[in-house]
Amino acid sequence: MKRNLLHLKIFFFKGLFVAIICSAGFTVAYAQGTQLVSLKEKMHKLQLKDGFLNDTAYINTVIKIAFIYADRYPDSVFSLLKEIPEQSKKINYSKGTIDAYSALGNAYQTKGNFDQAMEYYNRALNLALKQNENKYWPGIKGNIALVYLNKGNYPVALKNFYASLKGAEGNHDSVLIRNNLNNIGTIHFYQGNMADAESAYIKTLKFSQDLLDTNNVILAYNNLGEVNLEQHDPHKALGNLSSAYQLALLKNTVYMQVAVANSLGDCYLLLDSLDKSATFFNTALTLAQKMGNARAVCKAHIGLAKVYTNKGEMQEALGHGLKGVQQARVMGQAQLLRDALEALANVYEKMGDGKNALKFYKEYKQYSDSLVNISSERAAANYKAEYEFSKKEEAFQRSSMKQRWMIFGALAASFFLLVILWIINTHKKRLDRSNHDLQHKNEIIEAQKEVAEETVAQLKAAQAQLIQAEKMASLGELTAGIAHEIQNPLNFVNNFSEVNKEMLAEMKEELRKGNLDEVKLIADDLEANHEKITHHGKRADAIVKGMLQHSRSSSGVKEPTDINALCEEYLRLSYQGFRAKDKSLSAGQPGFNATFKKDFDISIGKINIVPQDIGKVILNLLTNAFYAVDEKQKKNIQGYEPTVTVSTRLVIPPSPIGSGQAGGKIGVEIRIADNGNGIPQNVIDKIFQPFFTTKPTGQGTGLGLSLSYDIVKAHGGEIKVETNESEGTVFRILI
Asked: Checking CA distances to 718, which of 12, 425, 524, 543 falls within 20 to 30 Å?
């Protein structure tokens, strides 16, 4: 998805990953996959030109690729931008220089080299201020704030975040405003102020949804889940984190998957589900190592150290704990180092190594106290108060200006009122004449309206007749199937009746002879045959009742119905009905045959539907499916086996924001698939329109799918189609 927003960086602190504003407002986060391929192709084409290094289009393309690489492949950024800053200076292209410095800062942020990142951000900021580029410096300020946040200097981080926020508001940059609010919420999180943190993340979620920014929706769900963990509510956290992980998998954003996997590891650790916790931490570790994301690797090692400590596997716990501390020290990342030291101290304590446990606990306590202290919290409150005061001052200035404009507006309005009165008086006579003309035209329109209403009534009557014709066609399909289907139980009834007649005669003969034992055996056989006659008679009765139920008008009343039985019944009847229409069978030729498969979810039970109506939908879709495979079979494709599949399953909606429970009502999906010719893409949008059909003239009314669509919609559901030409079609009914 292409979206205009500031470059996004992902960081992992205490299980939380934070949206970071990592470049100025000019930086665009480009869609993944195809966007990157397009940029590379453009870069290679530009390199074919003479003097391409002096071409700003080439410089811009390279920098765009660098911003995408910065989050995932930071080492590639350094070689990619090797010549760009100096070349931009050489041709006096300040925007290219600022962009290149910001992208390099982003790459060093991902690597965890915060000192080097700060150096490049300061270069970008100084150049932006020198060039008076007001649209650039707020984003760079946010990046600088991030470095201080990583190093645990909350007061300075807050000062820069609020400066960036104010600049973003001046530029009306909603994305940068959103990211700053999110990062300020993160500092509340670190300081233990969960109420303010949760409030900030909910605002971030709303901003991201309004901007159609899926990555930041994932981010907000993850952050809310982390707050829930700090509030000791793992079940609510699991709801938010599951939503985040599903979206990350759906969008195939690997760096988001890494972040949420680490958070899910913490969640399952709190729930004492150690195997699941280890699975998510290992997933995050593997992906992060491939990406070269040092912070995510460190976070995963800390999580695995805690898991193996709880499982009592101390050597594994010690290995991960030492790697976590080493990685955090190399980066100089204060929050991660604090967490790694705490985890390692706990490992040594469980191993009975009191000396090392005390050593690392003291160091942990030192970092913990430096990160959360009264002066830091006071600075946060002061910066917030200064920001709120500046907002009120701006509002007061706007109000004063508004009052002056209101006075001027009142004077101007008086003048224009006099002008308007003169215009009204001038045009009054003209309006009177126009009203007379309009009245005459209204009379003409009224007469035309009556004609149109009569025409509409005639069209509705014609439509009703066509719909009835479609229903009769559906009944004909069903009747043909029933004629074949009912023949089997009637044959059984006739055959067993003949056998019983013969056995009764034999029984009389044995009675005459006085062979009572033989009579008893014959009586037992008669009783067994009677049960079979009763069984097949009831089967025939059920088929007839089904036919009557289908043929009569729908009552519109929903009733508990076994949807699996309904699908199985209409699958059989549809198949037999289609075979009954096959003229080749009556001519003694092999005729139509197909394989049909069933995959029913037995956990569904009965659902409330109008069985006659849903039965018509299923019958219609199955008849179309058999028609499709029959048409393909006529092409005599070698190895082709016509197959129709019917399946059902429960559908459970995702959980809503902030809850650990499933959201909405549980539904049922009916899936009807065939391996026929498929539906051409140029008509796929028309298939549910009334009177549209892909069948030859005289073989379809074009109302079947239209009526099916209306029936499913009346049940509060939806019907969807998926097709591949030459491969087949799938219809999905969701109720």
From this structure: 543
